[in-house]
Amino acid sequence: MLDAQITRMLADPKSDALARNFAGQWLETRSLAAVKPDVLKFPMWNAALAEDMATETRLFFDHILRENRPDSEFINAGYTFLNPRLARHYGIENADGPDFRKVEVDPAQRGGLLSHASVLTVTSYPVRTSPVLRGKYILDVILGSPPPAPPPNTPALDEDTVGACHDPHRPAPEDKAAYYRSRCLTCHTETPCAAPASDRELGLAYASVALRENHRPSGLRAFSILQGVYEKLPEDAAVATQLAQLYDRMNNPAKACELYARAVAADPASTAASVNLGGCLAKQGRMPEAIELWRGALRRNIGLEPARLNLAVALYQSGNLREARETLEQALRVNPVSAQARRLLSALNRR
Description:
By secondary structure, the chain is an all-alpha fold. Helix content is 60%, strand content 2%.
Protein backbone atom coordinates (compact mmCIF):
# COMPACT_ATOMS: atom_id res chain seq x y z
CA MET A 1 0.00 0.00 0.00
CA LEU A 2 2.76 2.45 0.95
CA ASP A 3 4.71 1.70 -2.24
CA ALA A 4 1.59 2.34 -4.31
CA GLN A 5 1.00 5.69 -2.63
CA ILE A 6 4.61 6.75 -3.18
CA THR A 7 4.35 5.80 -6.86
CA ARG A 8 1.10 7.77 -7.18
CA MET A 9 2.58 10.86 -5.53
CA LEU A 10 5.73 10.78 -7.66
CA ALA A 11 3.58 10.57 -10.79
CA ASP A 12 1.90 13.86 -9.86
CA PRO A 13 3.49 16.93 -11.53
CA LYS A 14 3.65 18.57 -8.11
CA SER A 15 6.44 16.12 -7.21
CA ASP A 16 8.78 18.21 -9.37
CA ALA A 17 9.07 20.45 -6.31
CA LEU A 18 11.13 17.74 -4.61
CA ALA A 19 13.97 18.27 -7.06
CA ARG A 20 13.43 21.99 -7.64
CA ASN A 21 12.91 23.13 -4.05
CA PHE A 22 14.03 20.41 -1.64
CA ALA A 23 17.22 19.49 -3.51
CA GLY A 24 18.05 23.14 -4.15
CA GLN A 25 17.70 23.92 -0.45
CA TRP A 26 19.47 20.77 0.77
CA LEU A 27 22.45 21.11 -1.59
CA GLU A 28 22.48 24.92 -1.37
CA THR A 29 22.43 25.26 -5.16
CA ARG A 30 19.62 27.84 -4.87
CA SER A 31 22.32 30.28 -3.79
CA LEU A 32 23.99 30.09 -7.23
CA ALA A 33 22.05 33.15 -8.36
CA ALA A 34 23.79 35.19 -5.66
CA VAL A 35 27.31 33.91 -6.44
CA LYS A 36 29.55 36.51 -8.10
CA PRO A 37 32.84 34.93 -9.25
CA ASP A 38 35.66 37.26 -10.31
CA VAL A 39 34.98 37.89 -14.01
CA LEU A 40 38.67 38.49 -14.71
CA LYS A 41 39.56 35.04 -13.44
CA PHE A 42 36.42 33.34 -14.78
CA PRO A 43 35.41 35.16 -17.98
CA MET A 44 33.07 32.34 -19.09
CA TRP A 45 30.81 32.86 -16.04
CA ASN A 46 27.34 34.25 -16.74
CA ALA A 47 23.76 33.83 -15.53
CA ALA A 48 22.92 31.28 -18.22
CA LEU A 49 25.84 29.06 -17.23
CA ALA A 50 24.84 29.33 -13.57
CA GLU A 51 21.30 28.23 -14.48
CA ASP A 52 22.73 25.26 -16.42
CA MET A 53 24.77 24.25 -13.37
CA ALA A 54 21.67 24.27 -11.16
CA THR A 55 19.68 22.35 -13.77
CA GLU A 56 22.30 19.60 -13.97
CA THR A 57 22.05 18.97 -10.25
CA ARG A 58 18.23 19.16 -10.24
CA LEU A 59 17.92 16.62 -13.07
CA PHE A 60 20.51 14.37 -11.43
CA PHE A 61 18.59 14.37 -8.12
CA ASP A 62 15.27 13.81 -9.92
CA HIS A 63 16.69 10.85 -11.86
CA ILE A 64 17.98 9.11 -8.72
CA LEU A 65 14.64 9.70 -7.00
CA ARG A 66 12.36 8.51 -9.80
CA GLU A 67 14.52 5.59 -10.94
CA ASN A 68 15.06 4.46 -7.34
CA ARG A 69 18.82 4.43 -7.80
CA PRO A 70 21.11 3.53 -4.87
CA ASP A 71 22.22 6.32 -2.55
CA SER A 72 25.84 5.64 -3.49
CA GLU A 73 25.21 7.20 -6.90
CA PHE A 74 24.97 10.61 -5.24
CA ILE A 75 28.73 10.23 -4.73
CA ASN A 76 30.05 8.04 -7.55
CA ALA A 77 27.55 7.94 -10.42
CA GLY A 78 29.11 7.37 -13.83
CA TYR A 79 26.69 9.76 -15.52
CA THR A 80 25.32 13.28 -15.32
CA PHE A 81 22.94 15.54 -17.27
CA LEU A 82 24.38 18.10 -19.68
CA ASN A 83 23.42 20.49 -22.43
CA PRO A 84 26.02 21.67 -25.00
CA ARG A 85 26.95 24.84 -23.07
CA LEU A 86 27.66 23.00 -19.81
CA ALA A 87 29.38 20.18 -21.69
CA ARG A 88 31.78 22.71 -23.24
CA HIS A 89 32.42 24.14 -19.78
CA TYR A 90 33.42 20.65 -18.61
CA GLY A 91 35.38 19.88 -21.79
CA ILE A 92 32.98 17.06 -22.72
CA GLU A 93 32.02 16.68 -26.36
CA ASN A 94 29.30 14.01 -26.47
CA ALA A 95 26.29 16.17 -25.51
CA ASP A 96 24.53 16.99 -28.78
CA GLY A 97 21.21 18.80 -29.19
CA PRO A 98 19.82 21.91 -27.47
CA ASP A 99 18.38 20.16 -24.40
CA PHE A 100 19.81 18.46 -21.35
CA ARG A 101 20.36 14.74 -21.68
CA LYS A 102 22.00 11.95 -19.72
CA VAL A 103 25.71 11.63 -20.54
CA GLU A 104 28.16 8.95 -19.40
CA VAL A 105 31.23 10.30 -17.58
CA ASP A 106 34.31 8.87 -15.89
CA PRO A 107 33.29 8.52 -12.20
CA ALA A 108 36.92 8.90 -11.13
CA GLN A 109 36.97 12.43 -12.61
CA ARG A 110 33.40 13.72 -12.66
CA GLY A 111 31.29 11.26 -10.72
CA GLY A 112 28.43 12.26 -8.44
CA LEU A 113 27.23 15.47 -6.86
CA LEU A 114 30.55 16.57 -5.44
CA SER A 115 31.97 17.11 -8.93
CA HIS A 116 28.96 19.14 -10.16
CA ALA A 117 29.86 22.70 -11.07
CA SER A 118 26.96 23.92 -8.95
CA VAL A 119 28.37 22.34 -5.77
CA LEU A 120 31.95 23.33 -6.57
CA THR A 121 30.84 26.93 -7.13
CA VAL A 122 28.84 27.35 -3.93
CA THR A 123 31.78 25.91 -1.95
CA SER A 124 34.31 28.37 -3.38
CA TYR A 125 35.33 31.96 -2.82
CA PRO A 126 34.88 34.46 -5.69
CA VAL A 127 38.56 34.23 -6.68
CA ARG A 128 39.63 30.74 -5.60
CA THR A 129 38.59 27.31 -4.42
CA SER A 130 38.60 26.29 -0.76
CA PRO A 131 39.23 22.73 0.49
CA VAL A 132 38.08 23.85 3.94
CA LEU A 133 34.70 25.12 2.68
CA ARG A 134 34.26 21.92 0.70
CA GLY A 135 35.18 19.71 3.64
CA LYS A 136 32.71 21.59 5.83
CA TYR A 137 30.04 21.22 3.11
CA ILE A 138 30.51 17.43 3.03
CA LEU A 139 30.26 17.18 6.80
CA ASP A 140 27.31 19.54 7.16
CA VAL A 141 25.24 19.05 3.99
CA ILE A 142 26.04 15.48 2.91
CA LEU A 143 26.73 13.72 6.22
CA GLY A 144 24.63 15.93 8.52
CA SER A 145 27.50 16.15 11.00
CA PRO A 146 28.75 19.74 11.02
CA PRO A 147 32.24 20.42 12.38
CA PRO A 148 32.58 22.03 15.80
CA ALA A 149 32.84 25.78 16.12
CA PRO A 150 36.38 27.22 15.99
CA PRO A 151 38.10 27.95 19.30
CA PRO A 152 37.39 31.33 20.91
CA ASN A 153 39.33 34.30 19.53
CA THR A 154 40.36 32.46 16.35
CA PRO A 155 41.32 35.21 13.88
CA ALA A 156 39.96 35.57 10.38
CA LEU A 157 41.90 33.91 7.58
CA ASP A 158 44.87 35.88 6.31
CA GLU A 159 44.64 35.72 2.53
CA ASP A 160 48.43 35.99 2.31
CA THR A 161 48.82 32.66 4.08
CA VAL A 162 46.02 30.62 2.50
CA GLY A 163 46.34 26.96 3.43
CA ALA A 164 48.10 27.64 6.74
CA CYS A 165 46.62 27.79 10.22
CA HIS A 166 47.21 31.51 10.77
CA ASP A 167 47.62 33.60 13.87
CA PRO A 168 49.15 37.11 14.11
CA HIS A 169 51.49 35.73 16.77
CA ARG A 170 52.15 32.29 15.31
CA PRO A 171 55.14 30.53 16.86
CA ALA A 172 58.58 29.63 15.67
CA PRO A 173 58.82 26.48 13.48
CA GLU A 174 59.87 24.22 16.35
CA ASP A 175 56.64 25.06 18.22
CA LYS A 176 54.28 24.64 15.28
CA ALA A 177 53.22 21.04 15.98
CA ALA A 178 51.97 21.83 19.48
CA TYR A 179 50.40 25.06 18.23
CA TYR A 180 48.60 23.24 15.43
CA ARG A 181 47.25 20.61 17.81
CA SER A 182 45.92 23.23 20.21
CA ARG A 183 44.39 25.68 17.73
CA CYS A 184 43.70 24.05 14.36
CA LEU A 185 42.75 20.44 14.99
CA THR A 186 39.33 21.32 16.41
CA CYS A 187 38.13 21.56 12.83
CA HIS A 188 40.92 20.01 10.79
CA THR A 189 40.66 16.53 12.29
CA GLU A 190 37.26 16.52 10.57
CA THR A 191 38.01 18.32 7.31
CA PRO A 192 38.78 18.37 4.43
CA CYS A 193 38.24 14.61 4.02
CA ALA A 194 34.90 14.26 5.69
CA ALA A 195 35.30 10.78 7.26
CA PRO A 196 35.33 8.04 4.61
CA ALA A 197 34.79 4.53 5.88
CA SER A 198 38.23 2.99 5.29
CA ASP A 199 41.90 3.81 5.03
CA ARG A 200 41.61 3.45 1.27
CA GLU A 201 38.83 6.01 0.98
CA LEU A 202 40.50 8.28 3.52
CA GLY A 203 43.78 8.25 1.58
CA LEU A 204 42.05 8.84 -1.75
CA ALA A 205 40.06 11.73 -0.25
CA TYR A 206 43.18 13.40 1.12
CA ALA A 207 44.99 12.84 -2.20
CA SER A 208 42.09 14.36 -4.15
CA VAL A 209 42.21 17.53 -2.06
CA ALA A 210 46.01 17.69 -2.25
CA LEU A 211 46.17 17.28 -6.03
CA ARG A 212 43.24 19.54 -6.90
CA GLU A 213 43.90 22.31 -4.40
CA ASN A 214 47.70 21.98 -4.06
CA HIS A 215 47.09 21.49 -0.32
CA ARG A 216 50.44 20.29 1.09
CA PRO A 217 49.22 18.99 4.51
CA SER A 218 46.65 16.79 2.78
CA GLY A 219 49.34 15.51 0.40
CA LEU A 220 51.62 14.42 3.24
CA ARG A 221 48.72 12.72 5.01
CA ALA A 222 47.58 11.01 1.80
CA PHE A 223 51.07 9.75 1.05
CA SER A 224 51.48 8.14 4.48
CA ILE A 225 48.06 6.44 4.27
CA LEU A 226 48.22 5.30 0.62
CA GLN A 227 51.67 3.77 1.03
CA GLY A 228 50.22 1.35 3.59
CA VAL A 229 47.07 0.73 1.56
CA TYR A 230 49.08 0.00 -1.60
CA GLU A 231 51.14 -2.65 0.20
CA LYS A 232 47.86 -4.45 1.00
CA LEU A 233 46.12 -3.72 -2.34
CA PRO A 234 48.81 -3.65 -5.07
CA GLU A 235 46.19 -4.39 -7.76
CA ASP A 236 44.03 -1.38 -6.86
CA ALA A 237 44.41 0.92 -9.88
CA ALA A 238 42.90 3.98 -8.17
CA VAL A 239 45.29 3.73 -5.23
CA ALA A 240 48.30 3.18 -7.50
CA THR A 241 47.34 6.15 -9.69
CA GLN A 242 46.86 8.57 -6.81
CA LEU A 243 50.08 7.43 -5.16
CA ALA A 244 51.89 7.88 -8.49
CA GLN A 245 50.55 11.42 -8.80
CA LEU A 246 51.85 12.19 -5.32
CA TYR A 247 55.28 10.81 -6.29
CA ASP A 248 55.13 13.07 -9.36
CA ARG A 249 54.57 16.06 -7.08
CA MET A 250 57.56 14.93 -5.02
CA ASN A 251 59.80 14.95 -8.12
CA ASN A 252 60.23 11.18 -8.22
CA PRO A 253 59.24 10.43 -11.83
CA ALA A 254 60.77 6.94 -11.90
CA LYS A 255 58.58 5.70 -9.05
CA ALA A 256 55.58 7.54 -10.48
CA CYS A 257 55.98 5.84 -13.86
CA GLU A 258 56.35 2.43 -12.22
CA LEU A 259 53.08 2.94 -10.35
CA TYR A 260 51.24 4.28 -13.42
CA ALA A 261 52.31 1.15 -15.32
CA ARG A 262 51.01 -1.08 -12.52
CA ALA A 263 47.73 0.83 -12.47
CA VAL A 264 47.24 0.36 -16.23
CA ALA A 265 48.12 -3.34 -15.91
CA ALA A 266 45.52 -3.71 -13.15
CA ASP A 267 42.88 -1.69 -15.02
CA PRO A 268 43.58 -0.97 -18.73
CA ALA A 269 40.49 1.29 -18.82
CA SER A 270 41.90 3.64 -16.17
CA THR A 271 41.93 6.99 -17.96
CA ALA A 272 44.09 8.93 -15.49
CA ALA A 273 46.72 6.18 -15.30
CA SER A 274 46.83 5.83 -19.11
CA VAL A 275 47.27 9.57 -19.70
CA ASN A 276 50.05 9.87 -17.14
CA LEU A 277 51.79 6.67 -18.20
CA GLY A 278 51.79 8.05 -21.74
CA GLY A 279 53.68 11.07 -20.44
CA CYS A 280 56.25 8.80 -18.79
CA LEU A 281 56.76 6.78 -21.97
CA ALA A 282 57.10 9.94 -24.08
CA LYS A 283 59.86 11.21 -21.78
CA GLN A 284 61.65 7.88 -22.25
CA GLY A 285 61.45 8.23 -26.04
CA ARG A 286 58.85 5.47 -26.40
CA MET A 287 56.59 7.68 -28.49
CA PRO A 288 54.53 5.04 -30.39
CA GLU A 289 53.45 3.45 -27.09
CA ALA A 290 52.59 6.85 -25.61
CA ILE A 291 50.52 7.76 -28.68
CA GLU A 292 48.49 4.54 -28.44
CA LEU A 293 47.81 5.10 -24.74
CA TRP A 294 46.57 8.65 -25.37
CA ARG A 295 44.43 7.53 -28.31
CA GLY A 296 42.84 4.87 -26.11
CA ALA A 297 42.17 7.34 -23.31
CA LEU A 298 40.47 9.72 -25.75
CA ARG A 299 38.31 6.93 -27.15
CA ARG A 300 37.03 6.34 -23.62
CA ASN A 301 36.64 10.02 -22.73
CA ILE A 302 36.65 12.47 -25.62
CA GLY A 303 36.82 15.51 -23.32
CA LEU A 304 40.34 14.87 -21.97
CA GLU A 305 42.18 18.03 -23.02
CA PRO A 306 45.60 17.09 -21.50
CA ALA A 307 45.60 13.77 -23.36
CA ARG A 308 44.60 15.48 -26.62
CA LEU A 309 47.31 18.15 -26.36
CA ASN A 310 49.93 15.55 -25.43
CA LEU A 311 48.82 13.44 -28.38
CA ALA A 312 49.05 16.40 -30.76
CA VAL A 313 52.60 17.22 -29.65
CA ALA A 314 53.67 13.57 -29.92
CA LEU A 315 52.18 13.27 -33.41
CA TYR A 316 53.94 16.47 -34.44
CA GLN A 317 57.27 15.21 -33.13
CA SER A 318 56.70 11.91 -34.94
CA GLY A 319 56.15 13.74 -38.24
CA ASN A 320 52.42 13.03 -38.48
CA LEU A 321 51.41 16.64 -39.12
CA ARG A 322 48.00 15.88 -40.58
CA GLU A 323 46.74 13.95 -37.56
CA ALA A 324 48.39 16.46 -35.21
CA ARG A 325 46.45 19.27 -36.89
CA GLU A 326 43.17 17.28 -36.76
CA THR A 327 43.76 16.54 -33.07
CA LEU A 328 44.24 20.23 -32.23
CA GLU A 329 41.21 21.25 -34.27
CA GLN A 330 39.15 18.71 -32.33
CA ALA A 331 40.59 20.08 -29.07
CA LEU A 332 39.28 23.53 -30.01
CA ARG A 333 35.86 22.12 -30.87
CA VAL A 334 35.70 20.57 -27.39
CA ASN A 335 37.10 23.66 -25.65
CA PRO A 336 37.02 26.77 -27.90
CA VAL A 337 38.86 28.88 -25.29
CA SER A 338 41.87 26.54 -24.97
CA ALA A 339 44.77 28.97 -25.37
CA GLN A 340 47.33 26.16 -25.46
CA ALA A 341 45.56 24.33 -28.28
CA ARG A 342 45.25 27.59 -30.21
CA ARG A 343 48.97 28.35 -29.81
CA LEU A 344 50.00 24.85 -30.89
CA LEU A 345 47.70 24.94 -33.93
CA SER A 346 49.01 28.37 -34.93
CA ALA A 347 52.60 27.12 -34.72
CA LEU A 348 51.73 24.02 -36.73
CA ASN A 349 49.98 26.05 -39.45
CA ARG A 350 53.09 28.19 -39.90
CA ARG A 351 55.06 25.17 -41.03
